[in-house]
Design goal:
Number of strands: 5
CATH topology of the largest domain: Methane Monooxygenase Hydroxylase, Chain G, domain 1
Structural class: mainly alpha
CATH class of the largest domain: Mainly Alpha
Largest sheet: 3 strands, antiparallel
Order of helices and strands: HHHHHHEEEEHE
Number of helices: 7
Distance between the termini: 88 Å
Strand content: 5-15%
Number of domains: 3
Strand order of the largest sheet: 4-1-5
Shape: flat
Length: 245
């Protein structure tokens, strides 16, 4: 009899033929990708990059279609206006000596000039959208702290002038002839934006869920379009997860 100590099945190194054909016991093969634990976010959770012009148009579209005044974009607009100024100055220098330009260069300059005019138009349209809503709701935006926080200093000055003019006109034409107790404007008389207006939105990335009026919860898939109450997607719009269309 051999003096070699006996070994049990658990002491032996399993051969390749004894390993389970489905369960791989090789730890090096158990990767983060296999377990779904990678740090890289899913593609539908990433907002696609935008050019300066695309971002400007998005802010304008949101402001135009939202029932309330959105958070001001003063730093971004300053960047846009600086870009317009730089492009305009460069264009003037090149157009000062057009004889040395080829036909292709003339065409490129035409495209640059068109883009400059487009950005100027959108900047003015964006400002007009805000002014239109401030004209309607200036009392609300000056009296409500949360709403006032969305205004730039220029917006506040505009609302203050508008409020002074309207209240002076109202007092001289109507309120002056009423008893003193009827002259004060009470809170329920202040006109506010209707946040229950329905809007069309498109999800810039997968986000949600949002609470619908029917108490259902809805996830918004990337690039999906929805027709919902503005109040429902208000926070998503503020975060940049959706845009109005």
């Amino acid at each position: 009899m051999s003096n070699r100590p006996s070994t049990s099945f658990f002491d032996e190194e399993p051969s390749s033929s004894s390993r389970h054909p489905i369960i791989n016991t090789d730890e090096s093969a158990i990767t983060d990708e296999a377990l779904g634990l990678t740090d890289e976010p899913a593609e539908d959770s990433i907002i696609p990059p935008e050019s300066l012009t695309e971002e400007l148009i998005r802010h304008w579209s949101n402001e135009r279609l939202a029932p309330e005044v959105l958070m001001h974009q003063e730093p971004f607009l300053e960047t846009v206006l600086d870009r317009i100024k730089q492009q305009s100055e460069a264009l003037e220098v090149l157009l000062a000596s057009p004889d040395g330009l080829s036909s292709d260069e003339h065409f490129r300059l035409t495209l640059i000039e068109t883009e400059i005019e487009q950005m100027r138009y959108v900047c003015k349209a964006y400002a007009r959208c805000r002014m239109f809503k401030l004209d309607k709701y200036f009392d609300y935006y000056l009296s409500d702290p949360d709403a006032r926080a969305k205004l730039s200093q220029v917006d506040i000055e505009y609302c203050t002038r508008e409020q002074t003019l309207v209240h002076n006109l109202l007092f001289s034409s109507v309120l002056e002839g009423l008893p003193a107790k009827y002259r004060a404007m009470e809170e329920h008389m202040i006109v506010k934006p209707d946040l229950d207006n329905a809007v069309f939105v498109i999800a810039r990335r997968t986000c949600g869920p949002v609470q619908l009026a029917t108490s259902e919860r809805l996830m918004l898939a990337q690039n999906s379009r929805h027709f919902v109450r503005y109040r429902t997607i208000k926070s998503l719009l503020e975060n940049g997860d959706v845009r109005l269309i």
